């Protein structure tokens, strides 16, 4: 299997993105060091050949830049999510949260018919490595506070600002 990657540059930030022939499998944090991506790739796809190829990654870059510029509210790219069945279930539920809307960990637990699995949902969300596209930035605390985010709270805040999320937005159900 080949794993194609490039660095997406946007404004004064950059982050790694990667895809297999099946679809996008990695969107890193803003200004993430390349070795974090390399470590993830070696662990998750140990037999993959890493190939830096901006041309193959161009469609992914275009949609991500459109989102970051505030002109795209929905992604239409193929995904290759790498995780356990439970993680995939949680990440698919995240993909159902509409643009500009937030949800809580317990909302996701209820959405996947496991209302007592809030902590497990949080752990699964923390393992998401397709940031932005699998919108874990839309998850907030029960009281409306910003909670942990693999890309850092500054990135989370920036993404929510792009979507113009305010505390008056209704959570998704």
UniProtKB/TrEMBL annotation:
Alphabetically sorted, this entry's keywords are: DNA damage, DNA repair, Methyltransferase, Transferase
Task: Specify the Methylated-DNA-[protein]-cysteine S-methyltransferase DNA binding domain's residue ranges.
Answer: 85-165
Query: Which InterPro entries does the UniProt record give?
Result: MethylDNA_cys_MeTrfase_AS, MethylDNA_cys_MeTrfase_DNA-bd, MethylDNA_cys_MeTrfase_DNAb, MethylG_MeTrfase_N, MGMT_N_sf, WH-like_DNA-bd_sf
Identify the CDD domains for this entry. Answer: ATase (cd06445)
Name of the protein: Methylated-DNA--[protein]-cysteine S-methyltransferase
The EC number of this protein is: 2.1.1.63
Q: Which reaction does it catalyse?
A: a 6-O-methyl-2'-deoxyguanosine in DNA + L-cysteinyl-[protein] = S-methyl-L-cysteinyl-[protein] + a 2'-deoxyguanosine in DNA; a 4-O-methyl-thymidine in DNA + L-cysteinyl-[protein] = a thymidine in DNA + S-methyl-L-cysteinyl-[protein]
Q: Which Gene3D superfamilies match?
A: Methylated DNA-protein cysteine methyltransferase domain, Winged helix-like DNA-binding domain superfamily/Winged helix DNA-binding domain
* GO MF annotation terms: methylated-DNA-[protein]-cysteine S-methyltransferase activity
């Amino acid at each position: 299997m080949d794993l194609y990657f490039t660095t997406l540059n946007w404004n004064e930030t950059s982050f790694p993105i990667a895809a297999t022939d099946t679809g996008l499998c990695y969107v890193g944090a803003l200004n993430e060091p390349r070795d974090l991506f390399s470590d993830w790739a070696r662990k998750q796809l140990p037999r993959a050949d890493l190939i830096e190829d901006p041309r193959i990654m161009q469609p992914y870059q275009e949609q991500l830049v459109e989102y970051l510029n505030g002109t795209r509210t929905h992604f239409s790219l193929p995904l290759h999510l790498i995780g356990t069945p439970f993680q995939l279930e949680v990440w698919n539920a995240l993909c159902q949260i509409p643009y500009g809307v937030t949800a809580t960990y317990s909302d996701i637990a209820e959405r996947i018919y496991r209302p007592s699995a809030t902590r497990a949902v949080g752990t699964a969300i923390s393992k998401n490595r397709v940031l932005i596209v699998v919108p874990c930035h839309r998850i907030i605390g029960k009281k409306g506070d910003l909670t942990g985010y693999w890309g850092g709270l500054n990135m989370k805040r920036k993404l929510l600002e792009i979507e113009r999320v305010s505390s008056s937005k209704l959570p998704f159900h």
